[in-house]
Design a protein that fits this description.
By secondary structure, this protein is α/β, with parallel strands linked by helices. The chain has helices at 43-50, 75-80, 98-111, 155-169, 174-177, 186-200, 216-229, 269-277, 280-286; strands at residues 4-14, 17-28, 32-36, 56-65, 68-69, 83-86, 93-97, 123-124, 134-137, 142-145, 150-151, 179-180, 204-208, 235-239, 253-258, 261-266. It has a single domain (4-117, 147-286), classed as 3-Layer(aba) Sandwich (Rossmann fold). The strands form five sheets. It has a six-stranded mixed beta sheet, sandwiched between helices. Strands 2-1-4-5 form a four-stranded antiparallel beta sheet.
Length: 296
């Protein structure tokens, strides 16, 4: 049976202002959902809230994943349970190669929700064979208790995984040797988010405007990459303003958000209707005032 993410009567505040005002939505593994709506509707607020961003405060309602509320879980534990968010504006991380980042992230995901988080302070490779529990590491000779160190996925195994995902997405290995997103173009950053999604294999993945700021060719590449990852074990939620990226996806459900409400749902035909008629008719149908949105 597919795992379900159930959002029940969700209310969310940002800096004491209510942005999401009672939203209900169920997302299952294997489904592809699209969330559309004007700027300031609460779309990005929704995805960040689901992933546990501390800026967003849930004032009512619940988020249930795999039969349990996750409201009290921090972002890393939600990720370990199979939730994923591809950022609208991916962060640049100088000094950390994309390959090392992915290897560490995948190791944390595999160790599961209850395992300690791997950090630079407790991260280690396989011991030196001496059998001792304390090793001197680093230039300063600091002592680290080897019994408490976390072991990364073996390099050979990780390279096999990474290579298969690069081949699937038709990406060059050079991306993984560079610092994470450092100096990347907008299209390269979005492709790196899709590569993270491929390597980590989440159960439900949110993509926050994966087409934002991209040209036609870049949108096609990203859209085709996301399409290749869809399967019965992965649910995908795409937040977008435009139809173009949806041409590459087999969409099951389309939802429209306005002013913090989920005001309309339908199939892929709803996207075409929005392209032709805009959002005004949906706003009128929902009985909402014009111009109430603002960027959030």
């Amino acid at each position: 049976m597919a795992d379900e993410l159930i959002i029940k009567d969700l209310h969310v505040n940002v800096e004491d202002k209510e942005i999401i005002k009672g939203l209900n939505l169920t997302i299952r593994q294997g489904e592809t959902h699209v969330i559309m709506g004007p700027n300031g509707s609460g779309k990005s607020t929704l995805s960040n809230t689901i992933m546990g961003h501390p800026r967003y405060t849930v004032t009512a309602g619940d988020i249930i994943w795999q039969g349990e509320s996750i409201l009290d879980l921090p972002a890393d534990r939600r990720a370990r349970r199979g939730l994923f968010l591809a950022f609208q504006y991916p962060m640049e991380v100088p000094g950390v190669s994309a390959s090392n980042f992915l290897r560490t992230a995948l190791t944390n995901i595999r160790k599961g929700d209850q395992a300690p988080t791997i950090t630079p302070d407790n991260l280690g490779e396989i011991g030196d064979g001496s059998g001792g529990n304390v090793a001197k590491v680093g230039g300063d000779g600091a002592n680290i208790d080897r019994s408490k160190r976390q072991i990364l996925i073996p390099p050979k195994e990780f390279r096999t995984i990474l290579k298969s995902k690069l081949n699937l997405l038709q990406m060059d290995e050079k991306y993984t040797k560079r610092y994470l997103n450092d100096g990347f173009s907008g299209g390269e950053k979005k492709r790196m988010e899709v590569l993270q999604m491929a390597v980590l294999s989440p159960k439900i993945a949110f993509l926050d405007e994966p087409d934002s700021g991209l040209d036609i060719d870049a949108i096609r590449i990203v859209g085709e990459g996301v399409s290749k990852l869809k399967g019965p074990d992965m649910g995908i939620v795409v937040i977008t303003h435009q139809q173009r990226i949806l041409n590459y996806l087999d969409v099951d459900f389309v939802h429209v958000m306005m002013q913090g409400y989920l005001v309309k749902s339908g199939g892929k035909e709803l996207v075409k209707e929005i392209e032709e008629r805009g959002y005004g008719w949906i706003r009128e149908e929902a009985g909402l005032a014009v111009g109430a949105e603002e960027d959030v």
